[in-house]
Amino acid sequence: MRSAIKRPSEEDSNLTGFQLFNKLTKEEFNRLNYEKTCSLYKKGTIIYREGSRLTGFFCVTRGIVKIFKTGIDGKEQIIRFAKKGEIIAYRSLLSQELACTTAKVIDEAALCHVPYQTLLFLIQNNWQFSHHMLQIVCRELREANDYITDIAQKTVRERLAEVLLLLKDNFDLDNQNTLQISLTREELANMVGTATESVIRLLSEFKNDKMIELQGRKIKFLDIPTLTRVANL
Amino acid sequence: MRSAIKRPSEEDSNLTGFQLFNKLTKEEFNRLNYEKTCSLYKKGTIIYREGSRLTGFFCVTRGIVKIFKTGIDGKEQIIRFAKKGEIIAYRSLLSQELACTTAKVIDEAALCHVPYQTLLFLIQNNWQFSHHMLQIVCRELREANDYITDIAQKTVRERLAEVLLLLKDNFDLDNQNTLQISLTREELANMVGTATESVIRLLSEFKNDKMIELQGRKIKFLDIPTLTRVANL
DNA sequence: AAATTAGGATGTTATGAAGCATATAGTAGA
DNA sequence: TCTACTATATGCTTCATAACATCCTAATTT
C-alpha cells in the first residue's frame, strides 16, 4: 500500500514551514521530529483508504494529495487537495473515527507521518497547538458549509467556473497564467459534482468565450473577471 | 434583535448536561457559570446574522435553532439544527472570522451566551476541553463532507428520504412515531437543496407508497426500512 | 363573518444536465 | 513502431427537476 520510493531529502523532512507547529517549544519540536517518519510516495499511491483505522496524521512537505470520498457506485467526490504545508488525516484521528475519505497522491509527494501519541502529547502540553488545530478544522468546516450551499444552489456552469478560480487561488500559476496543477476532466467533474462530459462541454464553452485556453490538461486563464461573473461570486 | 422574553428558569441556565464541560474542574465550571448569560428567545428571533462579529458562543438549553446560509437571491441553505445540549456560533468564533451563517429560533429556545474570553480561558487551562471541542468540530466536518457527497451524487428523492431519516435520528418521535420537530415544506426544501414544490410532490409520493403519513406539518413514519432503501443508505 | 396572509397542493411547461454512442487523440507499454 | 488503453471530444436522446401558474386550505386579524 505505502509504496515509498528513494529516500526523502532533508527538505522533505523539514516541518519548520508549518504554522501549526510554530508555537511549539524547542523540546516539543524536537520530540515531534524524533517521532515523525517521512517517506516519498509516487503518483497514484493510496496514503490511506476510506474505512481504515489511522495511526497518525500526515504533514505534506511536497507534492499534491487528493482527498476524496467514494459515493454511489464508486463515483469519487473530491473533498479537497492538500499541498506543501498542509496536514491530512487529522479529522478522523481527532474524532476517533475510521477514515471517511481516501487520500491518493496525484503529484509525487513527500509526507511526514506523526503518530497519534505525539498528537495527543502536543494537545495535552501546548494549548496554542490545540488552538491552532481548532482554527484549521474550523476553517475547513466553513469551506465545507460554503460548498454545500454552492452545490445545492448553483448550476454546474457556475460551480465549474468557481472551481477553476479556487484552483487558481490555491495552486501556483506560471508566468503565462497557466495552472500548475494537472487534473483530468473526470477529476474536475468529481470536484464540481457533475458528469465528465458536462465538464468537457463547459470547458469548451469557456474556451470559446475566451475566458480560458486549453492545451491538454493545462488550463490558462485569459479573463478572470468574466469567469468570476460566470461563477456568480 | 435579541428579543428576550420572561426570565430563564433554573433549568434553562443549567449547563451540567453538556458533555463539552464534563471535564472542567469545579473552579472552571464555576467561572463558566459566573460569566455566562442566559436568555429566552421566542420563535422567529435571529440569534446572530451572517457577517456579524460574534462576542461568544451559545449553549442551547431548550428549543431548536436553525443554522443556515443565505445563497443566491436570498435562498436559505440549512446547515443544521441545534437542540438542547448543543453549541452554536463556535465555529466563527474559533476561526476568528465573521459569522458565515445565520441562526434563527424555530422552537422557543433558551440559550446561554459564553463570552470569547471565557472560551479562551478554558482552552488555555484545560486540554481536555480543547480536545473535546476538537472532536465536536471534527464530527461536524465529517457530516458536512458526507453531505457534500450526497448532494453531489444523489437524486432529490434520495436526499429527501435521507433528510427525513436524519431528522428521525436527531429529534424525538412521539409514541406514534411522529416527528416532534415541525418544519415547513420550504424548510425541508432548504435542507435538501431543492424547490419547495419538489418536496411537496415527493412527500405525497412517500405517503402514497405508505412510507410516511402526513397531517399538516406532522410527519409520521410508517415504513423506515423502505425509506432507508429509497435513501440509498 | 369578511378579509388577509402564509403555507400547501397540483397541473403544465421548459430546460439543464445526465446518459449513451461514437469518434478521435494522446499516452504508455511491449 | 505497433498495440492497447485511457482520456477527450461531440452529437443525440432522455429525464429529473425547476419554474410558473393557479387553486386550495387553514390560521389570524379586523
Automatic annotation (TrEMBL), chains A, B:
Residues covered by the Cyclic nucleotide-binding domain: 20-94
Taxonomic source organism: Draconibacterium aestuarii
Keyword Transcription regulation annotated: yes
GO MF terms, alphabetically ordered: DNA binding; DNA-binding transcription factor activity
Keyword Nucleotide-binding (UniProt): no
Protein name in UniProt: Crp/Fnr family transcriptional regulator
Family annotation (SMART domains): cNMP, HTH_CRP
Domain HTH crp-type stretches: 154-225
Keyword terms of this UniProt record: DNA-binding, Transcription, Transcription regulation
Gene Ontology CC entries for this record: cytosol
